[in-house]
């Protein structure tokens, strides 16, 4: 499970880096920056939904703050 989350974070960071690269290189002339940021948002939502699903299935356990 840890490796899936790490790979997703690396994909999100790679998409963010490519968006920065396209922003600096294209100067807003193409839609590549928007496409890279759209991919980043999609990966972030997919990761969030996967973590919720994994918690629901019991694959991961929450270790957050204790309720009083």
Give a description of the structure.
This protein is mostly helical and 68 residues long. It has one domain. The protein contains 2 helices and no strands. Helix 1 packs antiparallel against helix 2 (32-57). The longest helix is centred in the middle third of the chain and has 26 residues, at 32-57. The chain is elongated, with a radius of gyration of 16 Å. The mean pLDDT is 90. Pfam families: DUF2909 (PF11137). It comes from Candidimonas humi.
Summary of the model, kept short:
The protein has 68 residues and is mostly helical. The chain has one domain (2-57).
Features:
single chain; 68 residues
Q: What is the helix/strand order?
A: HH
Structural class: mainly alpha
Please indicate the count of domains: 1
Please give the share of residues in helix: over 70%
Helix run count:
2
Which quaternary structure do these chains form? single chain
Rg over CA atoms: 16 Å
Query: What is the tally of beta strands?
Result: 0
Q: Looking at the structure, what is the overall shape?
A: elongated
Uncertain residue ranges? none
Q: Give the strand content.
A: under 5%
Distance between the termini: 30 Å
Protein name: Twin transmembrane helix small protein
Transmembrane segments: 35-54
Keywords: Membrane, Transmembrane, Transmembrane helix
